[in-house]
Amino acid sequence: MVAVDNIDIHVGGITPFTTIDFPGRLAAVIFCQGCPWRCRYCHNRHLLESGEAGQYSWNDTFRWLETRRGLLDGVVFSGGEPLLQKQLPEAIGQIHQNGFEVALHTSGVYPERLSKVLPLIEWVGLDIKAPFDEYELITGGGNGQRAKDSLIRILDSGKDFELRCTVDPLFFNPDNAGKMARQLMELGVSHLVLQPYRDLVNRRTQAVSKEIIASIEQFLPVVKQRH
Ligand code: SF4
After folding, report:
1. Rg (CA), the chain
2. What's the CA gap between 226 and 160, in Å, rounded?
3. 4-179 — its CATH code?
4. What percentage of the chain's residues is helix, strand, coil (to nearest 5)?
5. Does the pLDDT value for residue 1 go beyond 70?
């Protein structure tokens, strides 16, 4: 086991307690620094630069987590993109040793790294940004083939997972929403969680239109809305 001091995870922030980010568990969220994508609606812009060390060292984060034993069930790695952290598998191993379960939130940008981490975690949440052939329009250049590859690896792993999509009203319409849902169905997916778009300036949310929901429901039997 690698010593805690020798693990380099750039932590940009911590939510000490959540009931909504890891289903069925009381958890803390560790927000990792850095993401290669630039989604047009990203609300974590302060976490995007990968060259920055982050707010906390892994040593500080781990010592704090030790004080949460018995109070939390799990730890969620979110971001930014947590799979950018090369020593994530070692960090997960240390967290398990302390009795916590582990969840991962990912955009799917690193399918090969995801394959290494999947056997180590209990749950994964994968963002679906758009139809796979239109990802660039949301991510600022990020390729949807990587997200598709990640989804296939999650499905093959048999892990519990959630797919969620932020419904950007400037991008989505019933046609491309239906196309995205059909692509998911063709891979064997049956559920999708829709997250409302939140304006970057005034932080108001915009509800998902009935037409878009109906279009998605043509292909996916379980469509939930997060408010
Ligand atoms: S993948 Fe996530 S963290 Fe990265 S830019 Fe998009 S919304 Fe932000």
Report:
1. 17
2. 19
3. 3.20.20.70
4. 35, 25, 40
5. no
Degrees, nearest 5: CA angle 162-38-35: 70
Cβ of 37 below 6 Å from ligand 1? yes
Q: Which helix (H) or strand (E) holds 93?
A: helix 88-97
Closest CA to 131 of 166, 168, 181: 181
Q: What is the pLDDT of residues 55-110, one digit of tens each?
A: 899 999 999 999 999 999 999 999 999 999 999 999 999 999 999 999 999 999 99
Phi, psi angle pair for 32, to nearest 5°: -85, 145
* Domain locations in the chain as residue ranges: 4-179
Q: Ligand 1 in contact with 44 (CB < 6 A)?
A: yes
Please enumerate in sequence order all residues whose Cβ is within 8 A of that of 152, keeping only pairs 6 or more positions apart, or say none: 187
**Neighbour-count burial of 107, counting CB atoms closer than 10 A to its CB (0-12 exposed, 13-18 middle, 19+ buried):** buried
Cβ of 81 closer than 6 Å to ligand 1, yes or no, is yes
Q: Does position 5 have pLDDT exceeding 90, yes or no?
A: no
CA distances from 86 to 33, 89, 124, 142 (A): 12, 8, 18, 20
Hey, which of 35, 40, 84, 110 would you mutate to test ligand 1's pocket, going by the most ligand atoms within 8 Å of its Cβ?
35
Measured in angstroms, how far is the CA atom of residue 71 from the centroid of ligand 1? Answer: 30
Task: Measure 148 CA to ligand 1 centroid, in angstroms.
Answer: 16
